[in-house]
Amino acid sequence: MNKNTNDTKITPDYVLSLNKPTKGFLCSLSDNKYKIDFISFKIRDAESGYVLFEIDKDPEEPELTPEQEAALDNDPKARTISYQFGPLFFKLKTVGTTLKFSVGDKPCKNFRMIERHYFRDQLIQSFDFTFPFCIPNSVNDWENIYDIPNLSKEVKKEMIDNPYETTSDSFYFVDGDLIMHNKAEYDYSPLDEDDDKTVEEIIGSK
To answer: Cβ distance 134 to 107 under 8 Å?
Structure first.
């Protein structure tokens, strides 16, 4: 884990300056001092409402102990989510996300998420969203809209042909303090229903 070097504070401006994925995680699980817990997450096509991905946390899942958190700090599989969207994803113009999360017994001000998306070591797009305030012990719904980046056919084909080489870093701040850092990897290779189509037919000239 590449946590803060020499106790240097990781700021929003710092992560906004990153042009390639981090080699590790810039904070520990124990840095989530506001006890923010993700309950459910949904990704949909913003125009049609078609659901691309949906996950719900098991309500019976026990809270991690400090020892379990420390063990997971250096386990990238535990802090990385994998998505398989298929090449038709590139036909979309915008996607919407709905995140349901709970907050512990501290008020949470300026809950900010910065997402940096990459193909290999090239920055594709950056997103920056802020949830102004969460009262203690509350459950909140956070809706965000993402514009699909305008990529060349050549780049899209490379991303389709190379599953999981498209990645992202998601950094979560509260009042400027980094409290969470997660990663994701993306597979745009053809799904079963795309088997009879060529990549060129799927991505077209967009």
So the answer is: yes
Identify which of 180, 83, 165, 76 has the alpha carbon closest to the alpha carbon of residue 118: 165
pLDDT in tens, 100-127: 999 999 999 999 999 999 999 999 999 9
Distance separating alpha carbons of residues 139 and 77, to the nearest angstrom: 27
Token reading at 32:
């989530």
* C-alpha span between 29 and 182 (Å, rounded): 10
**pLDDT tens-digit series, residues 138-183:** 999 999 999 999 999 999 999 999 999 999 999 999 999 999 999 9
Instruction: Please check whether residue 164 is in contact with residue 51, taking contact to mean a CB–CB distance below 8 angstroms.
Output: no
- Helix or strand or coil: residue 11? coil
